[in-house]
Specification:
Layout lengths: L10 E5 L5 E9 L1 E3 L2 E3 L6 E3 L5 E5 L2 E6 L6 E3 L12 E5 L4 E3 L2 E2 L1 E3 L14 E4 L2 E8 L13 H14 L4 H11 L4 H7 L4 E4 L34 H14 L4 E4 L11 H14 L4 E6 L4 H10 L3 E6 L4 H8 L6 H13 L3 E8 L7 H14 L3 E6 L4 H8 L12 H11 L4 E3 L8
Helix pairs in contact: 1-2, 2-3, 4-5, 5-6, 6-8
Length: 431
C-alpha cells in the first residue's frame, strides 16, 4: 500500500505560554540542516511514528516557510494571542532517521537542550508529520510490541527468582524505572538482551547519556556501579540465547561506560556462555578504543561488534569523544580485526542533517568504509543539543559546506557500497 503523504505542506507548530502545541497555517513547516532552513519535500514526510514524543524547546522561536515567497520566516509571538511562544520538535520512536532537524532560532539566554534528538515536525490533515524515514523494519522496539502489564509481571517474576544476581536486579531497574526497550525484551524473553558491565569509560563524550560530569544536561540514566561476575553475566545470557527468538545478547549499553575496560571479565563471560550454548549472537556495542581487547574477545567467541561514531574525521571524532589514550585509528583497527576474523561489524553512526551529509564528512566516511569494510551502518539520530554539538566539533570560524541532503547522502553511499547494509538494530546472526 502506497505510503500516505500530505497533499500540501504541513503547517508550522509552536508552543503557547502553557506549553500547549498549536499549528499556524500562515507559515509552512520548515526543516533545518545545521541552520539552513528549507521546506521539506512531500516525499520526505511521514506520519509521526507511534511511540514518538513532542518537545517544547525553551528559549527558541520557530522558523517556518512563508508561502508567499518560499523564504524562511521567524514566528516571534502567538499569532492568536500575541503572547510569547517557543518552538516544537519531535523525538522520534526508534528505527526512524531524521532527514531534517527542527527549525528554530535560539534566543541569547536559551538553556541547553537535554540529550535527545530534535526532528522537524508539522501539522496537516489532523496529524503530525516528520521529515524522516523508517531505516529498519525490525519491530523489536516498536511501542505497539510492549504490553506494560506483561512486562511488569515477567520482570517481577524473574527478579523474585534471582534475588542474588546483581545484574538481573540492575536490569530490573532499567526496565521498570527507565523503560529501556532492551531490558524489557530481556524480561519478555525475546530478541536483544542487554549485558551492561562497566562503571568506567576511557572517553568523555560531550553527549554521553550515562554520565554528564559538567551537569550541563542530566544524563538520561544512571551508570551501573559494579562489574558483574562472568557467572552473573552468563546467568542472564545463556537462558536468553537458548530460548529467545532471534536471540542476541549485547555488551555496551546506555547505562554504562565502555565495556572494553572490562575485557578480562567479558572474555571469561563469553567463554562461559559459549561453553553452554552456540545459539544466537554475542554482540559488543563499543567506542572501539582498544583493539587488543577486541582481539581477545574475538578469540573467546565474540560474533559481532557495533562501533559508535559521531564522525569519520579524526578532529571531529576527537573533539566529541575527548578520548583518554586512544584515537580514531585505534577504532578503525578494531573494526578491521573483526572483519579479518570473519565476524560482523556495524557502525553506530550519529546522524545530524547538515553535518553528516557535509561533503567532507561524506568523503571521510567513504574512506573509512573502504578501509575497514563494515557490514552495516546503523543510522542513529544524534541525541544532543545540535548547536552545542556544532560548537564542539567545528573549528572556530569554520564554515560548513552545502550539505548533500540526507536522502542523496544515503543513496550515494548505497551506490558506492552495494554490499553495505543500513538499519538501526544489531542483526541476529546465528539462529
Ligand atoms: S564512550 Fe559511551 S560511555 Fe564513554 S563517554 Fe562516550 S557515550 Fe559515554
Amino acid at each position: 500500500m502506497a505510503r500516505r503523504r500530505p497533499d500540501r505542506p504541513p503547517a508550522l507548530l509552536f508552543a503557547g505560554g502553557n506549553g500547549e502545541i498549536l499549528d499556524y497555517p500562515g507559515l509552512h513547516m520548515a526543516g533545518s540542516a545545521c541552520g539552513r532552513f528549507t521546506l521539506p519535500r512531500a516525499e520526505d514526510l511521514i506520519e509521526l511514528p507511534e511511540g514518538s514524543e513532542l518537545f517544547v524547546l525553551p528559549g527558541r522561536l520557530p522558523v517556518g516557510i512563508d508561502p508567499a515567497d518560499g523564504e524562511p520566516a521567524l514566528l516571534e509571538r502567538d499569532p492568536y494571542e500575541n503572547t510569547p511562544i517557543n518552538a516544537v520538535a519531535a523525538f522520534m520512536a526508534p528505527a526512524h532517521t531524521a532527514i531534517l532537524s527542527a527549525a528554530y532560532q535560539s534566543m541569547e539566554d536559551a538553556p541547553l537542550l537535554p540529550l535527545f534528538a530534535y526532528s522537524a515536525v508539522g501539522w496537516h490533515d489532523d496529524r503530525f508529520w516528520v521529515a524522516a524515514f523508517r531505516c529498519d523494519p525490525d519491530p523489536r522496539q516498536d511501542a505497539a510490541r510492549f504490553n506494560q502489564q506483561a512486562v511488569n509481571r515477567a520482570t517481577r517474576a524473574l527478579l523474585k527468582k534471582n534475588p542474588t544476581n546483581r545484574l538481573i536486579q540492575h536490569l530490573g531497574k532499567c526496565c521498570l524505572t527507565y523503560g529501556c526497550p532492551a531490558a524489557r525484551n530481556y524480561f519478555l524473553g525475546r530478541w536483544e538482551a542487554p549485558l551492561p558491565t562497566s562503571p568506567v569509560c576511557n572517553a568523555s563524550c560531550v553527549g554521553c547519556i550515562s554520565l554528564q560530569p559538567s551537569g550541563c544536561c542530566p544524563a538520561t540514566q544512571d551508570r551501573i556501579r559494579f562489574v558483574p561476575t562472568p557467572a552473573e553475566i552468563a546467568e542472564v545470557a545463556v537462558p536468553h540465547l537458548q530460548k529467545a527468538a532471534r536471540a542476541i545478547v549485547s555488551f555496551g549499553q546506555g547505562c554504562e561506560g565502555e565495556p572494553l575496560m572490562q575485557a578480562d571479565t567479558l572474555e571469561r563471560a563469553i567463554r562461559l556462555i559459549r561453553s553452554a550454548s552456540n545459539r544466537g549472537t554475542v554482540n559488543l556495542n563499543t567506542n572501539g578504543s582498544l583493539p587488543g581487547a577486541v582481539d581477545k574477545l574475538i578469540r573467546a567467541g565474540l560474533d559481532s561488534i557495533r562501533v559508535s561514531l559521531n564522525s569519520a574525521r579524526p578532529d571531529c571524532h576527537e573533539r566529541y569523544y575527548r578520548p583518554k589514550g586512544f584515537s580514531l585509528d585505534d577504532v578503525k583497527h578494531s573494526i578491521r580485526l573483526m572483519k579479518a576474523a570473519g565476524r560482523h561489524a556495524s557502525l553506530n553512526y550519529f546522524v545530524l542533517p547538515g553535518f553528516s551529509d557535509d561533503p567532507d564528512e561524506f568523503a571521510a566516511l567513504c574512506d573509512l568504509i573502504e578501509d575497514c569494510g563494515p557490514d552495516l551502518i546503523q543510522l542513529r539520530n544524534l541525541n544532543m543539543d545540535p548547536e552545542l554539538y556544532l560548537k564542539t566539533v567545528r573549528r572556530p570560524g569554520e564554515t560548513a559546506n552545502i550539505p548533500m541532503g540526507i536522502r542523496a547522502w544515503h543513496a550515494e553511499l548505497s551506490r558506492r557500497f552495494p554490499r553495505l547494509c543500513f538499519g538501526y538494530f544489531n542483526p541476529s546472526l546465528n539462529l
